[in-house]
């Protein structure tokens, strides 16, 4: 549990740092767009920022403050367990225009032997989130990336994996991660 909390803290911290860097990049991109003209704007690369495992009672709020200040929207893949503990933070995410996705109830990993349990956790988390936000949950990030495509039809959910893993959870050295 302590290890997991440390991982969450680090994730939020590093995500925040990455996010500041990306803001600089965005600024550069807008200048670039102005120089090259509107017709090329579509060629400009975009990134989607996601945060997993929260909400955390203090660090997620700080992260939300940072996103708000910079006018950036992100996707938060939360566990049902943490959402139940901090429903106000989930409501704040929603009110500030962020997308909220399912990250299972207890951060369970799908294996060959626990398909039904995993599915139950997804359903339970969808119910918790719907109760808080009043909206259906469309996106799921399976912990550790283990997924079964047949859930997509069964639950009408889209999996969102990742293209860049900053590996921020495996080191406490900020310089090494960024
Ligand atoms: Zn996770």
Descriptive labels:
globular; 7 helices; 2 domains; 8% strand; 178 residues
Describe this structure in words.
Helices cover 51% and strands 8% of the residues. The model is unreliable at 23-36 (pLDDT under 50). The chain is mainly α. Helix 1 (2-36) packs parallel to helix 2 (59-70). The chain has 2 domains: 2-43; 50-172, TIM Barrel (Alpha-Beta Barrel), CATH 3.20.20. The strands form 2 sheets. A 3-stranded parallel beta sheet has the order 1-2-3. The chain contains 7 helices and 5 strands. Strand 1 (50-52), helix 2 and strand 2 (75-78) form a beta-alpha-beta unit. The radius of gyration is 17 Å and the shape is globular. Zinc ion is lined by residues 52-53, 103, 107, 143.
Give a short summary of the structure.
By secondary structure, this protein is mainly alpha-helical.
**Based on the structure given, which CATH architecture of the largest domain is correct?**
Alpha-Beta Barrel
From the alpha carbons, calculate the radius of gyration and give it in angstroms: 17 Å
Strand order of the largest sheet: 1-2-3
Q: What hetero molecules are in the model? A: zinc ion
Roughly how many Å apart are the termini?
A: 25 Å
- The helix count comes to 7
User: Beta-strand level of the residues, as a percent range?
Assistant: 5-15%
The parts where pLDDT drops under 50 for at least 5 residues are: 23-36
CATH domain fold name of the largest domain: TIM Barrel
Structural class, from secondary structure content?
mainly alpha
